[in-house]
Amino acid sequence: MTIINPKEYLVLIVDDVPANLQILINRLNKFGFKTLVAQDGEHALFEAKRVKPDIILLDVVMPNMSGFEISHQLKANPTTCDIPIIFMTALNDIESKTKAFEVGGVDYVTKPFEYQEIIGRMKTHLTIRDLKREHELYNDKQNAFVSTVAQNLKIPLNSIVSYAELLRDEDNSPEEAQQFTKAIIQAGRWMNNIIEELQLLTEIQNNNTKPEPLDMTQIVTRSLERVAHLTTTYPAKIILPDNWPEVLGHASWVEEIWVNYLSNALKHGRHPRLELGATIQTDDKVCFWVQDNGPGLTPEKQAQLFAPFTHPDQIRAKETGLGLSIVQFIVQKLNEQAGVTSNVGRGSRFFFTLPALR
């Protein structure tokens, strides 16, 4: 359930009577709301567009421009159309109330009103507005994610179809046939990695169990086995510590982080040299890392690496899967951190944190 914290919300009060404004300002400020005032329609439209308040309390009877006309213009403007408007008026007839909702009001309070009542109604409509925004954001992310997955699966699938058609040609030499077969296997492994990561994402999303003590030696061993096929293409020297600090986490999730870091490091070093390690921090956290000898990254590229699932253009599956976006997804679920430190020409260090076992 969404909890309203008044300090986070700005209220625009539109009334042409200074005494009414002052009383309402005092009451709202006492409850913690931030307030802004306008005493005519032109000023109200200007302020609403300038600061885009979270909610508007709008008097109906105003000079030059009525509250109904103000609301009509606010709803016609894309910048202000989603701001909830609560009308305040001494008018109590059905026609006025009906008009208030027709021009976009979400509620109607008749003067004189109890301030507890108007605060309650404000909180209700702010909650509805926030829940609507959260729902829209969730739907946008889901749609972007589905689109991304479809696009990323098409890449290796198209490779499989293309090489299979080439392999069907009886004029291929044995060397060409072997090359096409190898490409099909590689694309198939690519698709399988994406599917496995999708399954892991579902597990992560639905898992609310507490982290458990991890056997990091076993997890790293399994991770190295999963990227072993890459070491045939990118022969590497891999340096491991003698032992690992004890931490809490979910083994399959942490393994996925290591696999993504290792595969990226193997593919971006000319003669890859990877060092894995862990640093015990002073905040009861352990920072695990992979140091490579690759070309390094500019600050701009570093900022783009851990893009979340927000837009299809931000996520591109590599041959090892969905890339570092899944690492970001995992650490967010664990309430931990992941990132990279790098200097161009001096390699990169990819890291993630886990809570130390106490």
Q: Which helices and strands appear, and what pairs or packs with what?
A:
Blueprint: E1 10-14, H1 18-31, E2 34-38, H2 41-51, E3 55-59, H3 67-76, E4 85-89, H4 94-102, E5 107-110, H5 115-167, H6 174-206, E6 212-213, H7 216-226, H8 228-233, E7 237-239, E8 248-249, H9 251-267, E9 273-280, E10 285-291, H10 299-305, H11 325-333, E11 338-342, E12 348-355
Parallel strand pairs: 1-2, 1-3, 3-4, 4-5, 7-9
Antiparallel strand pairs: 6-8, 9-10, 10-12, 11-12
Helix pairs in contact: 2-3, 5-6, 6-11, 7-9
Question: What is this structure, in a nutshell?
Answer:
This protein has 11 helices and 12 strands. By secondary structure, the chain is of the alpha/beta class.
**In terms of per-residue confidence, which ranges show pLDDT below 50 for 5 or more consecutive residues?**
309-321
Helix share, percent: 40-55%
Q: What's the β-strand tally?
A: 12
As an assembly, this protein is: single chain
Head-to-tail CA distance between termini = 33 Å
Strand content: 15-25%
What structural category arises from helix and sheet content?
A: alpha/beta
